[in-house]
TrEMBL record:
Keyword Methyltransferase: no
Membrane topology recorded in Swiss-Prot or TrEMBL: Multi-pass membrane protein
Protein name: Protein DETOXIFICATION
One Pfam match: MatE
Transmembrane segments: 55-73, 138-162, 168-189, 201-223, 229-254, 284-305, 317-340, 352-377, 398-421, 427-451, 458-478
Highest taxon, organism lineage: Eukaryota
InterPro entries: MATE_euk, MATE_fam
UniProt feature, compositional bias: Polar residues: 16-27
Family that this chain belongs to: Belongs to the multi antimicrobial extrusion (MATE) (TC 2.A.66.1) family.
Primary location recorded for the protein, binned into one broad class: membrane
UniProt keyword annotations, A-Z: Membrane, Transmembrane, Transmembrane helix, Transport
Localisation per UniProt entry: Membrane
Length: 505
């Protein structure tokens, strides 16, 4: 019986999907072109760019749509809240950016452990391990979600302790209470999302997110304006929308033939090896959390300025726009992680290195274009969020810093995706600590408070930290020995692959 179970589990390795074979062939073609001595340098670069661009945009385009629509759900909730009044806008901004982003960063960061392992395992044709990694991550993130619930419940005293006004903290707490169900949607969504991305299955998530956004907008309008549920209703609908995404994606995994070799049902292995899996997840979480918390601290510091409501309103609008454009880079981040992880797992060092160059180039060009558009719209940007002329002037004044942030975000997130694909999370965490918390935040605080530059000073200092971090990542990536990374990926997968366990019915 044990032998039969083992043969059943190993069967996917002998009979991979047709789509997998096509992907593998294209990837091998890229490595062959880059290694072909009969082609000139110009011919190799031209053919390789065409092959990599097709692979990249097959991943990046749907991934950008998924991240942008998911972010647009949060942004639309903030817009609905903002049209209730300036206090409600400040409360939703603080609750969304000050509390919710904390959970988002932690969960997404822990989920990137799945991104590393699943990406490399898929490239190495160890398909049956992907479902195990997904389940382990979901277990760990759900346990983490229980701890985060406590943070949400006590959000009001925490915000007051951080120096926010009682009025804004009270309203923000009401908004945060409605986001508690969203925590556990995160716990399942991010492992599922990374599981699908590792297999280059991104389009279904884009369709699901698009349909959910339409439902979200309609229900939010009814809940906030027709039923009158206010801030609590707006955030509760946002939680519901995230659960719709989770359920739809899981149904796709179970029913789709594309996942029949990577999802073999629930397994007891999901509850084994958790301490070791937690270490990798924790390193991933620290890496990403230090990034997401960085700009969260910008908003919290703005709440300590002389006119906190104006500072929060103007900064939150800029951060919301930045976050929306940032989703493009996050889509390329996901594509970079998948491409690098798959190529390293498949033993293709030249393809991995070439993928890094192409994805960074495309992301940077798009980010520069977005920065130019923002500068053209700087005087009317805020009216999509609120009708106040004072806020509009403040937002216009911050737009040059917003444009510079967008340009930096065209590079930094992509290189973070490369780090995830290679498994460098711990190293990047150290870099983030030094650049963000030793340089950026102290410098921003000095400029903002000591030199009385306000929100512009805080943001300027923190941009300095981001610029230094970006330069370090560029330098490290440029000096990477990709042959060595292939060996490291093989050793990592050998260490993580477990003996097969019976599946649960």
């Amino acid at each position: 019986m044990a032998s039969l179970q083992e043969d059943t589990v190993r069967q996917p390795l002998l009979h991979p999907q047709t789509s997998d074979i096509k992907s593998e062939t294209t990837s091998s073609e890229l490595e062959d072109v880059l290694s072909d001595p009969n082609l000139s340098l110009f011919q190799r670069l031209g053919r390789a760019t065409w092959i990599e661009s097709k692979l990249l945009f097959h991943l990046a385009a749907p991934a950008v749509i998924v991240y942008m629509i998911n972010y647009l759900m949060s942004m639309s909730t903030q817009i609905f809240s903002g049209h209730l009044g300036n206090l409600e806008l400040a409360a939703a901004s603080l609750g969304n950016t000050g509390i919710q982003v904390f959970a988002y960063g932690l969960m997404l960061g822990m989920g990137s452990a799945v991104e590393t392992l699943c990406g490399q395992a898929f490239g190495a044709h160890k398909y049956d391990m992907l479902g195990i990694y997904l389940q382990r991550s979901a277990v760990l993130l759900t346990l983490t979600g229980i701890l985060l619930t406590v943070l949400y419940i006590f959000s009001k005293p925490i915000l007051i302790l951080l120096g926010e006004s009682v009025e804004i903290a009270s309203a923000a707490a009401v908004f945060v209470y409605g986001l508690i169900p969203q925590i556990f949607a995160y716990a399942l969504n991010f492992p599922i999302q990374k599981f699908l991305q590792a297999q280059s299955i991104v389009a279904p998530s884009a369709y699901i997110s698009t349909a959910t956004l339409v439902i979200h907008l309609v229900i939010s309008w009814v809940a906030v304006y027709k039923i009158g549920l206010g801030l609590f209703g707006a955030s509760l609908v946002l939680s519901l929308s995230w659960w719709v995404v989770v359920v739809a994606q899981f149904v796709y995994i179970v029913k789709s033939d594309k996942c029949k070799y990577t999802w073999n049902g629930f397994s007891v292995q999901a509850f084994t090896g958790l301490p070791g899996f937690f270490k990798l997840s924790a390193a991933s979480a620290v890496m990403l959390c230090l990034e997401t918390w960085y700009f969260q601290i910008l908003v919290l510091l703005a709440g300590l300025l002389e006119n906190p409501e104006l500072a929060l309103d103007s900064l939150s609008i800029c951060m919301t726009v930045s976050g929306w454009v940032f989703m493009i880079s996050v889509g390329f981040n996901a594509a970079a992680s998948v491409r690098v992880g798959n190529e390293l797992g498949a033993g293709h060092p030249k393809s991995a290195a070439f993928s890094v160059v192409i994805v960074t180039m495309f992301s940077f060009i798009i980010s520069v274009a977005a920065a130019i558009i923002i500068m053209f719209l700087r005087h009317v940007l805020s009216y999509g969020f609120t009708e106040g002329e004072v806020v509009a002037e403040a937002v216009s004044d911050l737009c040059p810093l917003l444009a510079l942030t967008l340009i930096l975000n065209g590079i930094q997130p992509v290189l973070s995706g490369v780090a995830v694909g290679c498994g460098w999370q711990t190293f990047v965490a150290y870099v983030n600590v030094a650049c963000y918390y030793v340089v950026g935040i102290p410098l921003g605080s000095v400029l903002g408070f000591y030199f009385n530059l306000g929100a512009k000073g805080i943001w300027s200092g923190m941009i300095g930290g981001t610029a230094i971090q970006t330069l370090i990542l560029v330098w490290v990536t440029f000096r990477t020995d990709w042959e060595k990374e292939v060996v490291e990926a093989k050793n990592r997968l050998d260490a993580w692959e477990d003996k097969k366990e019976p599946l649960l019915n």
